[in-house]
Structure formats: C-alpha cells, structure tokens
Write a structure and sequence with these properties.
nine-stranded mixed sheet; Lipase_euk; 15 helices
Length: 418
C-alpha cells in the first residue's frame, strides 16, 4: 500500500511538473506571453553590468538641497575607458533606465562602444533622486518643483559634477529627450555661464512651445489653477492620477495592449503606435515607467498649452506672479540667450511635440546646427526610445552628428544640416 501511494504521489508530481513546464514555456516564449528577460527585474546599474559594461552611481547635491543619483558607463565592454563625456537626460516621468531598456541596441551602450564616457541623469522626484538634505518626501515643500527647477538647479549641479570629475568641462555633449530638452532650454537660457561647459546639444522630440499638442495632457488645461480638482484627480504633491482620470485618458490610447500599455500614464500622455510598437522590450520598459515626478511639472506643461503654447515660467496667478516675478504674468524664457550649438530631431506624428512648434523653436535658436525630421510617418514621442526602428531612424543619424562634435572636431568645419 505504501509503495502504491508513493508511486501515485510521484506520478502526480511528475504530471504537475509537466504542466508547469508547459506553462513556463508559454510564459517564456509562447503566444500567450512575453519571453522572459532578466533586465525586467533589474535597476539601471544592474542592467548595465548584466550587458557587460562597467557601471557607477554618483550622488550629486543641488544648490537647493536635492540629492540626485547620476549613473555612469565609464567605458566599453572590452575594458577601454571612455573619452569625451556625454550626458543623456530622460523625459517626464522617466529615469536613466530609458537609455538602457533596449538591451544591446540601447543608445547608452552604442555610445559607450563608440568611445564616449556616458552619464545618465535622473531628475529630482524620480525614484533614483528622491532624497533631500532637509525636506521629507512626505512634505508638500519637497514636491514644489517643475522642470524649471530641474533646469535651474539639477542640470547645473550635474554638469558641474561631470566637469569636475572628468576634467573635461567645455567638451561635454548633451542628449535630451522630451522634458530632458525642456530642462536644457531653461538651463542654457538662464545659466549661460555654466552652459559653456556643454559643447553641443541634441534635442530628441524637443518640448518648448506647445500650441499644437495632441496629447491628452491638453485636457488638463481648464484645471491647471484649480487646487481642489488637482488634489482630487492628480495628487497635490507627487503626480499620481486617479483611476477615474486614467480611464478618461485611455479613450484616446491606441489599442495595442490594453492590459498594460493603455494603463501606463507615460504611453497615454505620449502616445504609442502599432507600427513602432516593440513587444519584445515591453517587459523591460513597463516596470521602469512611470518613475515619478511632481504634479507641478505636469501642470507647468498644461499652463503652456493654455497660454497659447508660450514657453514661459510657472504661472502662480496674478498675486503669486507679482510676488515671484514682480509682474502679473510669468516671464517668457529668452531662447536667444542660448549659445550652445543645438540640433533638433523631431517627428511628424509626435503627440507632445508638434512640428509647427519645433519650427517656432528653431527660429529662436541663434546657434542652431540643423534639424532632422524622422522619415517615418507613424513615429511618435515615445518611439524615439522604444520604437522598433529607433536604432536606424534615430540613433544612426544621432551618432553621426555627435561625431562632428567629438573631441577632435575642427571648429572651422560647417555642419549646417537641415
């Protein structure tokens, strides 16, 4: 009897193992699930190391006390140290993971292999930069910032740190995506003396003027000064939209993967298209976004849309503006003050960055190197990072233009590219 029960137990166990094996096979590569990738459960430095590159993490303190984590890839997989420093800055609600989520095809790894010393920024308020020397994250004061403060405090601190660490101030390259470009436009227009440390900037999906935005973020514009509505639906400190608001926003979300893509606020606001949807890397991308930011940063964009798309400082209302600026309306950012050479890369189907707004921006830049329209009709805002054809459509021309501003670049050579 005991032998029979033992045999029966073993048989049941084996059958369960076979069933589990079939389930695992489906999860790993079958039609009902994504193929497992270890990067899905890793943070940015861990992803970097898993792909064979050296990784460093540095804490940078801003002038107003925020503690930012900056990640670094100081060399290539073959052990060679990188030369010219390049800073990659993520967009709204994102993090340094944006630049390594595509595995071996990631932009950060391509640049490291090309010999650059790659630095990956993390703006205040995302989960890598959630510290402060005095303020608690539970306080309203901690979250009282927008991308204005990121440009005025975060970028100066990080760029100075890179300059001091590498000894290569004046030779730093910068690549920003979305809010990473907004931050730079604020920084270089208001802090030109520090911006001199940057040799060249490339703007991917540049966001400054916002009159022709098609993103659902435009629906926030009637409420940007309604504190009670903001507290109820967005969160008064960290940007935490209510499920009701997310459901409303998903009305315009293209149905690609309703279970995950259209529940993700980044894809809802920035858009996603079927032609560029890269299913293979979604298990890696989705755990890393949204990475966090302040409600004020989102509202600042909403204010721009409401105020004729103007690129301007935060609007505190007439009384608040008088206290902050001495004027009834917030001042415009003067982009003509920017001296850093800038190259703009944009897409016709971008929900957050209308081509007309990019052209308007280009006319304000006195040191515009050139403009590049992505030659794909469906290409959207988030596709600059996770689109199937991003390596060919974005990274290839990007690395080419960066090469013109490498350490050995001849300043007499004209690189006016349109």
């Amino acid at each position: 009897m005991i032998k029979f029960l033992s045999f029966f137990a073993i048989s049941v166990f084996c059958s369960i193992q076979i069933s589990l094996g079939e389930i695992v096979n489906v999860e790993l590569g079958g039609p009902l699930g994504w193929r497992f990738d270890p990067d899905e459960d890793l943070n940015t430095p861990q992803i970097i190391r898993r792909h064979g590159y050296p990784a460093e993490s540095h804490i940078v303190e801003t002038e107003d006390g925020y503690l930012l984590t900056v990640h670094r890839i100081p060399g290539s997989r073959d052990g060679n140290r990188g030369g010219q420093p390049i800073l990659l800055q993520h967009g709204l609600l994102s993090s340094s993971a944006d630049w390594v989520d595509e595995g071996n095809a990631s932009l950060a790894f391509l640049l490291a292999d090309d010999g650059y010393d790659v630095w990956l920024g993390n703006a205040r308020g995302n989960h890598y930069s959630i510290g402060h020397t005095k303020l608690s994250t539970d306080s309203k004061e901690f979250w009282d910032f927008s991308w204005h403060e990121m440009g005025v405090y975060d970028l100066p601190a990080v760029i100075r740190f890179i300059s001091k660490t590498t000894g290569k101030g004046g030779d730093i390259l910068y690549v920003g995506h979305s809010m990473g470009t907004t931050m730079f436009f604020v920084f270089s227009s208001l802090k030109p003396e520090i911006a001199k440390l940057v040799k060249f900037m490339v703007a991917l999906a540049p966001v400054a003027y916002m009159k022709h935005v098609r993103s659902p973020i435009r629906y926030l514009t009637p409420f940007v000064n309604e504190e009670q509505w903001i507290a109820e639906h967005l969160g008064i400190k960290e940007f935490l939209p209510s499920s009701k608001l997310l459901h409303f926003f998903t009305y315009e979300c293209q149905i690609i993967d309703t279970g995950r893509i259209c529940d993700n606020i980044v894809f809802i606001l920035c858009g996603a298209d079927k032609e560029e949807y890269n299913e293979d890397i979604m298990p890696i991308v989705l755990p890393h976004i949204p990475a966090g930011s302040s409600t004020k940063a989102v509202l600042h964009y909403g204010q721009e849309i409401k105020n004729n798309g103007n690129f301007q400082e935060y609007d505190y209302g007439m009384e608040g503006n008088l206290a902050h600026y001495g004027t009834e309306t917030p001042p415009f950012y003067n982009l003509t003050h920017i001296k850093v050479p800038i190259y703009l890369m944009y897409a016709a189907n971008d929900y957050m960055t209308g081509p007309i707004d990019v052209v308007r921006l280009s006319k304000q830049l006195k040191n515009l190197v050139g403009m590049y329209l992505i030659p794909l009709k469906s290409f959207n805002h988030i596709d600059f990072l996770v689109g199937k054809r991003a390596p060919e459509a974005v990274y290839k021309p990007l690395t080419k233009i960066l090469g013109n501003f490498s350490s050995s670049f001849n300043e007499d050579i004209s690189v006016k590219l349109v």
